[in-house]
């Protein structure tokens, strides 16, 4: 997906602290956007990724960084928001995994939409990816298209003719391509965190789906995932 340089236009960037969102922020930055980062504390089973988001936003020079709490643990239904065990050593498993958080990206994008209206941004960047995480229904291109259509109807900006655009630049990239682009743009992946089930000290487990997909991608490039270095 090609996006033209936008000068100093404002954008809201959803930032989880993971590899994908860090690269997405770097892309928005490189395109000349003034980046307003948004991190959602959704009741995830650990706070390590929130600290990673702070590091990434600071390192990439975000204009500001907001944190919003929406406790999805009240609903549960996911290994990330309940006491369901995180699957290990099974990155090639088919179907929708138990790490899928019901409606998470719908909630996140809705919050980003509200924030965008307040700061005067007409662009939202989200690091969803349909290649390596094809089991997640809210990471598909058709979901992004549908949400963008909703944004035109649900906002003052859209109704007044100022189109809201949802950018998902990584959506059809492989994890290796995402890493390559991040490195080209100066992302320090050692600052990021992607593990679903870190130890009490915040160290990546190396065996959950996210860790396996990430480490295999680094290995395919002849690199070692900095998250797994001792």
Q: What spatial order of strands do you see in the largest sheet? A: 3-2-1-4-5
Radius of gyration: 17 Å
Helix-and-strand structural type: alpha/beta
How much of the polypeptide forms β-strand, as a percent range?
A: 5-15%
Report the principal-axis shape. globular
Distance between the termini: 36 Å
Q: Which CATH architecture is right?
A: 3-Layer(aba) Sandwich
Q: How many alpha or pi helices? A: 7
The helix/strand order is EHEHEHEHHEHH
Uncertain parts: none
CATH topology tier name: Rossmann fold
**Mean pLDDT across residues:** 91
General description of the model:
The protein has 230 residues and is α/β, with parallel strands linked by helices. The protein contains seven helices and five strands; from the N terminus they run βαβαβαβααβαα. The protein has a single domain (10-194), classed as 3-Layer(aba) Sandwich (Rossmann fold), CATH 3.40.50.620. It has helices at 19-30, 48-59, 104-119, 141-154, 156-159, 175-184, 209-220; strands spanning 10-14, 34-41, 64-69, 123-125, 165-167. Helix 1 packs across helix 6. The model has no long low-confidence stretch (mean pLDDT 91).
């Amino acid at each position: 997906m090609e996006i033209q340089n936008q000068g100093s236009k404002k954008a809201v960037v959803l930032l989880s602290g993971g590899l994908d969102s860090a690269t997405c922020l770097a892309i928005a930055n490189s395109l000349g956007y003034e980046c307003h980062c948004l991190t959602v504390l959704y009741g995830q089973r650990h706070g390590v990724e929130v600290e990673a988001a702070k590091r990434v936003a600071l390192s990439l020079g975000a204009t500001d960084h907001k944190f919003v709490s929406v406790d999805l643990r009240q609903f549960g239904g996911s290994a990330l928001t309940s006491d369901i065990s995180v699957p290990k050593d099974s990155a090639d498993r088919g179907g929708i995994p138990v790490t899928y958080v019901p409606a998470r990206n719908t909630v996140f994008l809705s919050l980003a939409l509200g924030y965008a209206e307040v700061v005067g941004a007409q662009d939202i960047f989200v690091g969803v990816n349909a290649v390596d995480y094809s089991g997640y229904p809210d990471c598909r291109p058709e979901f992004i298209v549908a949400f963008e259509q909703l944004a035109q109807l649900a906002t003052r900006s859209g109704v007044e003719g100022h189109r809201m655009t949802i950018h998902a630049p990584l959506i059809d990239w492989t994890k290796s391509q995402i890493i390559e682009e991040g490195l080209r743009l100066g992302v320090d992946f050692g600052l990021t965190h992607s593990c679903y089930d870190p130890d009490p000290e915040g160290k990546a487990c190396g065996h959950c789906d996210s860790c396996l997909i990430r480490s295999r991608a680094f290995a395919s490039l002849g690199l070692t995932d900095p998250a797994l270095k001792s």
